[in-house]
Specification:
single chain, alpha/beta, Arc Repressor Mutant, subunit A, Nucleotidyltransferase, domain 5, 5-stranded mixed β-sheet, 17 helices
Length: 423
């Protein structure tokens, strides 16, 4: 049965709209005192007081310290009660699992990371990820804060509406797997599944504190992909394939890609392709830091190639420059079509730093339209391992407070049933 608040607000949409706006103004810090809220919303003092009292009653807001006085009595500030809930973030990579627990402001409270091959399949991978999450929740048990949302990032295309991977080239057995339901059944909280590069794009938006930015995040790791932000909103495309530049054709390449096609960008410039080419060169008598690594019994990895290039290894430098050159050509096409303000380059291969970035810049500025590059910045990512956790928390907050808030506000916390009610 619907609560009294649900019925009341369902019949008074203007009241609901203003109340939700007030909570979000306080949550984002755009207005944190009653006078500020009145000025921003245009609502009268009595209406503002009524809305705030209800938000406090439901549990979203709380009175906090006094703000500086501007001549009269100092106004009391309000705070959003971010400690009331937890967000689980599960970032799955080609060769790792990274999970984290945040509050409703996105502050990371705990995290866990381990090496893992996603090719082991969905059942085994998600069981391991959930075991890691359960460990974090056990550490947080004293807070008694319930899980409000879960976000999961995967290294492949995703149908965002259903939370199912769509023909991911490096994830055998994952096509159409119901990732979302596995987490919703386990934690009783609404879950959103997205491509891992989209989640990194969210992180960049949060770090830059720009909700209307036009940005491309290009991840050059084991695979290659791009997250596209248009006026601050992720562009996923009709089937979740937007930004999947790793499988565009590279001119004159006959390399076989992991997706089964010939000449994909990833098969020339991706981390696994660089490892393949390094091993070929060493087999033909190549020398240097990578050869010494093999002699010491260590495997060649994309990260090792990037570090060797930074250290001046000739073979590694040639591999990194070729990767950057062909990646830059594909990125230039995105620039002409999408016209972003900023391109952020991240991933294990791009960890070679300025060596990689300089080649990408050269190709983008050479091949893109002058108007499209007039105000364009091309920069390296922070290469912070926590970025997927911050991005996942940002995705959860957007879905909870910007997209679905009216469905569950009156209940005081989100539920799977309320979130999915409009689907």
């Amino acid at each position: 049965m619907a609560s009294e608040s649900t019925l009341r607000f369902g019949a008074q949409t203007d009241e609901m709209t203003s109340l939700l706006r007030i909570v979000n103004l306080v949550r984002t810090g755009d207005a944190v005192t009653r006078p500020e809220i009145g000025r921003v919303t245009g609502l009268g003092r009595g209406v503002v007081a009524q809305r705030i009292d209800h938000a406090i009653e439901v549990g979203f807001l709380q009175d906090a310290e006094f703000a500086p006085s501007s001549g009269g009595r100092a106004p009391r500030t309000l705070r959003f009660r971010a400690e009331r809930g937890r967000v689980i973030v599960c970032a799955l990579g080609a060769l790792h699992i990274h999970v984290g627990l945040t509050d409703l402001d996105g502050d990371i409270l705990a995290e866990s990371h381990r090496a893992w091959d996603i090719a082991k399949g969905p059942e085994e991978t998600l069981d391991e990820a959930m075991s890691m999450v359960d460990g974090l929740l056990a550490q947080d048990a004293e807070s008694a804060a319930p899980v409000w949302a879960v976000t999961v990032g995967v290294p492949g295309p995703v149908d965002f509406a259903t939370g199912r991977p769509v023909a991911p080239p490096i994830m055998p057995g994952w096509n159409g797997f119901d990732v979302r339901s596995r987490f919703e059944d386990r934690y009783g909280a609404p879950t959103w599944v997205d491509n891992d590069v989209n989640i990194l794009a969210f992180s960049e938006r949060e770090r830059r504190e720009n909700d209307s930015i036009d940005l491309i995040y290009c991840k050059i790791g084991s695979g290659i992909g791009a997250g596209l932000l248009s006026r601050g909103r992720v562009h996923r495309g009709a089937n979740g394939a937007a930004g999947d530049i790793g499988h565009v054709r590279v001119r004159d390449s006959e390399e076989l890609c992991r997706c089964g096609k010939i000449g994909c960008l990833e098969a020339v410039a991706g981390g696994w392709a660089l490892v393949r080419d390094a091993e070929r060169a060493l087999a033909e008598g190549g020398t240097g830091m990578l050869a010494q690594r093999v002699a010491d019994g260590d495997a060649i990895t994309p990260e090792a190639i990037a570090r060797a290039a930074e250290g001046g290894d000739a073979l590694a430098i040639s591999l990194i420059r070729r990767s950057a050159r062909v990646a830059g050509e594909s990125i230039a096409t995105l620039v002409n079509v999408f016209n972003p303000n900023i391109i952020v380059i991240g991933g294990a291969v791009a960890a070679a730093g300025e060596l990689f970035l300089a080649e990408v810049r050269h190709r983008v500025y050479e091949l893109s339209l002058p108007l499209a590059t007039r105000d364009l910045s091309i920069v390296n990512s922070l290469n912070d391992r926590r970025e997927p956790l911050r991005g996942g928390a940002a995705l959860a907050r957007e879905e909870l407070f910007d997209e679905t808030f009216p469905r569950w506000f009156a209940d005081g916390r989100p539920s799977v049933a309320r979130i999915r009610s409009a689907e």
